[in-house]
Amino acid sequence: MHRPAKPKPQTPPHLSTGYAVRVSVFFGALFLIYGVYLPYMPLWLKGQGLSVGQIAIITATPYILRDLVTPAVAFYADRTANHRRTIIMLAWIGVAATLALSQTSGFWPILIFAVATSIAMTTTMPLSEVIALHGMKTTGYDYGRVRLWGSLTFVVANVGAAEVIARTGSSSVVWMLAAAFAITLIAAHFLPRADRDMSQSEGTHALSLGMAARLAVTPLFVLFLIAGGTVQAAHATYYTFATLHWTSQGITPLIIGALWALGVIAEVVLFAFSGRVVAWIGIRGLLITAAASAVIRWTAMSVDPPLWALFPLQLLHGMTFGAAHIAAIHFMSQAVPEKLAGTAQALYASVGMGLAMAIATLISGVLYERFAGGAYLGMAGLAALGLIAALAMARLWRGGYVIELHIQKA
C-alpha cells in the first residue's frame, strides 16, 4: 500500500531557523564522540594489550546487542513521545561508561563498559534523526545542511584527537570520549521538544508492538534494510582496522587523521547540496550510486594502494557513506508514517546496519588476521549484495508509504 506524505505546513522563518540551529548544535556535539571513537578506539584497545581477535569482538558485540536494545528504546520513545528525554538519559550513560572505562583493565571488564559506551552512542543517533526529520517535514529545512555540522565536528575531533594522541599516547582516548559525551549531554537539553508537536499533529494514539512488527517484515522495508544496511556494514574493515593497518604500513598518526578527515569532508560537501542531489538523482538512484561506489572503493582498498591513491579513494566516502545515509533518511521520511519514525530509524540502525555490521566486523577480524588489507575484498562482496537489493527496491517502490497505520485513539 502506498500513500503520499502529507503536504508540509508553512512555518515562520524564525521558528524554522531556531529549530535547525538547535538540531545542528546537537549533531555537532554528538559527532565529537564519533570522531574520537571510530578511528581511535581500536588504538586504545590495542594499548590495553588486547589482540586483534579481542578488538574485533569488542567492536562487534555492541552491534549484536543493539539489535535488541535500540529498537526497544526507540519503540518506548515512539510510544511515550519521549525522544528528547531518552537522548538525555543515554548521554548520562555514555558519560558514566567512559569514566568507568578509564579505570578498567582486562578483556571482560573492558568489554562491558565499551559495549555500554557504544550502545549509548549508537542508540542516540536514530532518536536524534527522528527530531531532525520532524523539523525537515514541518519547517522545510534541508536535512543535509543540518546534518553536515555533525560531519564537520567529526573532522575537528578526528584531527584534534590525532594531535592529542601523538603528544600523550592512546590512553587519552577514553578521556576525550568522556568529554565529548558531557558536551553532548549539555546540547541534548537544548533540543526542540518535537514530541509535543508530533503528538498534536497526529493525535494521541496507542502505538502497538504489532504495528512495529508489521513494519519490520514489510517486503519493501526489508529490501531497504538489506540495501542500506549492507552498504554501511561494508565499512567494517575500514572502521575497525584502517588505522591499525595504515600504522603498520608506516603512515604517521597525523596523515592517518588527515585521511579520515578527507573522507568526512567529502560527505560534508554532499550534505551541503543534498537537497539538490536528491531532487536530481532521486532516492533510489542515490542508494544505487552509493552501493556501486562501495564495490569500487573496497575492491581498490584490498590491493593495498600506495599512499597517494588513498586520498582519492577517501573522497569516495562521500558516496559510500554520505549518499547511502542521505538516501536512507529520505526514504524513511517518505515511506514510513511519522508515528513509527523512531521505530523505523531504530530498525535501520540495529537490524539493518547493526546486525550486518556485527557480522561484517567479525568476518573482518578473521580476514584481517589472515590477509591484512585483503580483508577489504570481503567488504566489496557485501556491497555487491547491497547493490542487488537496491536495484530490487528501486524497481518495486513507487514513492509512498510502505505500510498503512490503522490506529485507534487511546
Automatic annotation (TrEMBL):
KW Signal (keyword) present: no
Main location: membrane
Compartments, as annotated in UniProt: Cell inner membrane
Segments forming domain Major facilitator superfamily (MFS) profile: 216-410
UniProt feature coiled coil, ranges: none
UniProt signal peptide: none
Membrane topology: Multi-pass membrane protein
Record keywords, A-Z: Cell inner membrane, Cell membrane, Membrane, Transmembrane, Transmembrane helix, Transport
Transmembrane segments: 20-37, 86-104, 110-134, 146-166, 172-191, 212-231, 251-270, 277-296, 308-333, 345-368, 374-397
Keyword Cell inner membrane applies: yes
InterPro entries associated with the record: HcaT-like, MFS_assoc_dom, MFS_dom, MFS_trans_sf
Organism superkingdom: Bacteria
Record's protein name: MFS transporter, PPP family, 3-phenylpropionic acid transporter
Species whose genome carries this gene: Filomicrobium insigne
